[in-house]
Write a structure and sequence with these properties.
single chain, 206 residues, mainly alpha
């Protein structure tokens, strides 16, 4: 039983690796499930025994990648680091993945980030563990007095993710992804957010 489960998990892993490779090289429309199956060394029907649709395959393949970056980041960060340094540490692992497969990120932008299907990005972040990891870091920073405890952690998470997505979008049109350049852009934006941009609080009418 364990051997059968192990083989099934290995097959799933091989399909996800093949999917990332094909999406990166050929884009979403160009990467057929038949080609993905061939690259993984399985029958096309085997792909659909693990994933109901091509979009499910994309979400799972990206989610596994993202989960790996989060895991490595959390396990190698210094607990004494400030919030920005912790966020940058995790982001650096993700940026390194993107730099190796830039075509895959273009697929993510086209099919998930700017998709008409509501909830695709949230599903990806939730399944990869990103929402849980970021919420925990935010709440810890609030308890330590580093972040305003009166602000909903979900709101901080959303603004932080917006900066991350902007950073990727800012660099997506360049010929070569540079992990250090992306990190520099995100750090600058995070530090501005932490410091705030108001010189004085305005009288809001809305």
């Amino acid at each position: 039983m364990n051997t059968r489960a192990g083989k099934r998990e290995q097959t799933r892993h091989n399909i996800l690796e093949a999917a990332r490779k094909c999406f990166n090289a050929q884009g979403y429309d160009g990467a057929s499930t038949r080609e993905i199956a061939k690259t993984a060394g399985v029958a096309e029907g085997t792909v659909f025994s693990h994933f109901q649709t091509k979009e499910d395959l994309l979400i799972s393949s990206v989610g596994e990648h993202l989960a790996d970056a989060i895991k490595k980041g959390l396990h190698t960060m210094d607990p004494e680091w400030c919030f920005v340094d912790k966020m940058m540490h995790i982001a650096s692992f993700r940026f390194a993945q993107i730099a190796l497969q830039p075509g895959l990120w273009r697929v993510i932008l086209q099919q998930l980030v700017f998709t008409p299907r509501k909830g695709a990005v949230k599903e990806l972040m939730r399944n990869s563990g990103l929402i849980e990891a970021m919420t925990r870091l935010i709440e810890d920073a609030q308890l330590d007095g580093e972040l305003n405890p009166e602000i909903d952690p979900a709101a901080i998470h959303k603004t932080t993710m917006a900066l991350f997505l902007f950073t990727i979008h800012e660099h997506v049109g360049t010929e070569n992804y540079d992990c250090e350049d992306m990190c520099a852009t995100l750090r600058e934006l995070l530090e501005i957010q932490m410091k705030g941009i108001w010189l004085r609080q305005p009288e809001l009418v809305g």
